[in-house]
Every structure is written in C-alpha cells, then in structure tokens.
C-alpha cells in the first residue's frame, strides 16, 4: 500500500488545509507530499525505505550541526525546510513542536508556501527548531510545575549527551518506535530508551498542562519516576506506563468517534 500513488484529490484537499490552517495530515506519506508541494519539489524518501530515509536524516542532522557551528544557515536548506522536515519525520516531541509552530504561524497570518517563511528566525543549540521557535523550553514551565519542568530540562540535556552524536539518524528512528510502543503499553528494556520514553511522556504531560489539560496524576507519576530509585522507581515507571497507555487509548477512541 505504501508504494501506491497518493490520490490527487486527497493531496489537493490536504494541501488546501495546510495553507489555510498550517495543519498537516497525520499520515507521513501524505504529509510529506503536502510539504513537498509547498516547497515545489518531490517528496523526500519514505520511512518504508530505511536506508534512504536514514541517509536523508543524516543529511539534515549534518546540515543542522553546520548551521549551529557557523551561526548562519547555508543556502541549500532553509529554516522553513528544517521545520517542514521536523513536522513530517521528527521524533514525537520534535514533530509535535514543529506542527504546533506551523499552525500558530498560519493563525498569525504567515504563508507556508512563501520561501521567506521563518527566514528571519534563529537556530537553537539543541534538536528541535520548531520547539525552539515556540519558546522551548520555557513555554512548558507553567505553574505549579515550574520546578518539575526545569528538572526535566536538565534531564533532556543529559539525555542528549548520552546519545551517540556520530550517527544519530538511526537512533531517532529507534527512539520514535519506542515512544509509539510505550503508548501501547510496551516498556523498553534498554535503559537509554526507557529514559527517552519517560522524558517524552513527561514533556508531553507538561505541554498538555500548559494548554489547560488536567493531567496532575500523570505529572506526579513522571516526577516520581525521575526522582526515585530501586523498587520505588520501578513502581513509578509502571504507573507512568499505565497512565500513558490509558491516555492514548482514550485519545484514539475520541478520534474514532469524531
């Protein structure tokens, strides 16, 4: 099914929604086709071809590192293109950040098809340009969870230091799969992946809270998992797993009944 061409009417409709609202389709292939049309080019490689897709991610990561090192984005890829790529292919939190940024910018009157879109913005010293442009990390540090949020920011920095920076593209793919599996109730056995899904869950919970969603129980469980050790940590991690699984099951049910 992944090799079948996308119907023209579906692409036209999704592209119209993107231009009007900044919202991309959930499906990766259709979202990739939409941003490719906005950029006036062919879609990037599909994740169904792991080698080409990983090579594509390596190219983006290498360009991002060069931009940070030199402070000026090279002409071959713009901040706009980076955000589009994050919105389609980024790991969960990064993808959500990029998509939230696109919707906000369009609400404020921006044109996503304009080559100068986001050209005046700055680059972060961390992964996630969309999150940076939204005001990461401070935009999720809202009362009464400011202290918890800053503890999470420190863990995020530590997590970045533990990831192999020489070849991060395959890591992002594995981590994203682990996040999706965690939402189905599957707990990673690898300690780095476990820390990654826990950080992702806590960041998402803080984000939901900043948007007015009441998830105090999940935030408390995430904080307990981050600060406890031994059997207490195991119990807290299990509580996070159960709450995350319940939350996403509820969201899927709500989507199916719309």
Description:
By secondary structure, the protein is mainly α. The two termini are 25 Å apart. It has eleven helices and no strands. The mean pLDDT is 83.
Specify the helix fraction band: 55-70%
Contiguous low-pLDDT stretches (5 residues minimum) are none
Strand content: under 5%
Work out the number of β strands. 0
The major sheet is characterized as: none
Mean pLDDT value: 83
- Element pattern in H and E: HHHHHHHHHHH
Number of helices: 11
Head-to-tail CA distance between termini: 25 Å
The shape is globular
Compute the CA-based radius of gyration.
Answer: 19 Å
Structural class: mainly alpha
Secondary structure elements and their pairing?
Elements: H1 8-21, H2 28-39, H3 50-70, H4 79-89, H5 92-107, H6 129-134, H7 146-162, H8 168-183, H9 191-210, H10 216-227, H11 230-256
Helix pairs in contact: 1-2, 1-5, 2-4, 3-8, 4-5, 7-9, 8-9, 9-10, 10-11
Features:
single chain, 258 residues, mainly alpha, 11 helices, 67% helix, globular
Concise summary:
The chain has 258 residues and is mainly alpha-helical. 67% of the residues lie in helices and 0% in strands. The two termini are 25 Å apart.
